[in-house]
Amino acid sequence: MAGKKYIATDSPITINEEHQGHVFMFADTNNIKRIVNHLSDQFVFIGFVTIILTIITVFILSRLITKPLVKMKEATEQLSKGRHKVELHTDRRDELGELAASITKLSDDLERLKKERNEFLASISHELRTPLTYLKGYADIISRGDISDNERNEYIEIIREETEQLAILIKNLLELAKMDQNKFTINKEDIEFGKLIHTITERIRPVFEEKNITFSVRCPSHIIAHVDPERIQQVLLNILDNAKKHTPQGKRISLEVSQNKREIITIISDEGKGIPEEDLPFIFERLYRVEKSRSRLSGGTGLGLTIAKEIVEFHGGTIEVRSKLGEGTSFIIKLLVGDCNE
Ligand SMILES: Nc1ncnc2c1ncn2[C@@H]1O[C@H](COP(=O)(O)OP(=O)(O)OP(=O)(O)O)[C@@H](O)[C@H]1O
Ligand SMILES: [Mg+2]
User: Fold this and answer.
1) What is the span of the domain harbouring residue 247?
2) 69 and 88 in contact (C-beta within 8 Å)?
3) Tens digit of pLDDT for each residue in 213-269?
4) Separation of CA 289 and ligand 2 centre (Å)
5) Whether residue 203 is found in the same domain as residue 261
C-alpha cells in the first residue's frame, strides 16, 4: 500500500445473469495511512511502558522477596557450618517474616543446645573424675603396703563401692543416650496394675523395714494398665529409693494408686526432709542433685529422676513433684488407662 495514492474496488454489475458493466470506487489512502501511523505510535508507546513496568516489578520483587530469601539462605548455610548465632531482624509480618523469625529461633535453639551439651560434658567429666580420684588414692595407699589388714579391707570396700557407682553412672548414661536417639524400646502389654505394685512393694519392703520406715500401700484391684512392666517397675523403684534415702527413721512412706476414666494415678509420698523450692524445677534434669557434694553414702548419680521422667513420657504419661521443705515430698505419676494411648 505504501506509495499508492488510492485504494480501488471493482464491482461487476450483473442483471438477469447478463454482465452489464463495472462500478469502480477509489479512496484516498491518506486517511488509512494516518490511522496506521497513529496505531504504530500507540504500540511503540505501550511497548515502552510495558518494558518500564516489567523492570520496576522485577526490581520490587527482587527487593521484597529474592533479597531476603538470599539472606536466609546465607544464614542457614552459616548454621550448617556450625556458626550458630545468626540474626535475621525483620519487621515483616508476612510468611517471609515468619520464616526469618523461625530461622533466628532455630539459631537460638542450636546455640542453647550447644551450651547445654558443653555443660553436660563438663558435669560428666566431673562425675567421672571424682570416683576415679578416690580409686587412685585408695589404690595408692593399699599399694604402699604400710597399713593394717583392717584398713586395707576398708579401702578395698570403698574401691568396690566406687566402682559399682561408676558402673551405674555409665549404665544410666547409656540408657539416656538410647532414649535421645529414640533407640529405646518399651514393650507395652496389658497387665494387672495391682500385681505389678505388689511385686514392687514386696521387693522394697525389707529395705524400709531395715530403716524402720512405715510403708503403706493402697491399690485397688482389677486396674488394667497398658505399660511396659519392667520399665514402670524401674520408675517406681527409683522414686521409692529416693524416698527411702531422704526419709529419716521412724517416718512414713506411702504409695497410693487410684484410677479415673482416663488415667491411672500413682502417688508416692514421704515424710522426708523435702526439696527446697528453688531446686524443684530442676530435679528432673540430668545429673541434678540438691546436695551438690557427692558424698559416698548418700550420693546418687542424679540421673534416676531424669530416666523415670523419660520412661513415663515414653508411655504418654506425666510425672510431677510437690514438696515442702521439712514436711515431705510427693511424686504423682499419671499413666493413660488401657489401650487409649496407642
Ligand atoms: N523424696 C525425695 N526427698 C528429698 N529429695 C529428693 C527426693 N527425691 C529426689 N530428691 C532430690 O532430687 C535429686 C535428684 O534425684 P535423682 O533420683 O534424679 O538422683 P539421685 O537419687 O541423686 O541419683 P540416682 O537416682 O541416679 O542414683 C536428688 O539428688 C535429691 O536431692
Ligand atoms: Mg534417685
Assistant:
1) 189-336
2) no
3) 999 999 998 899 999 999 999 999 999 999 999 999 999 999 999 999 899 999 999
4) 9
5) yes
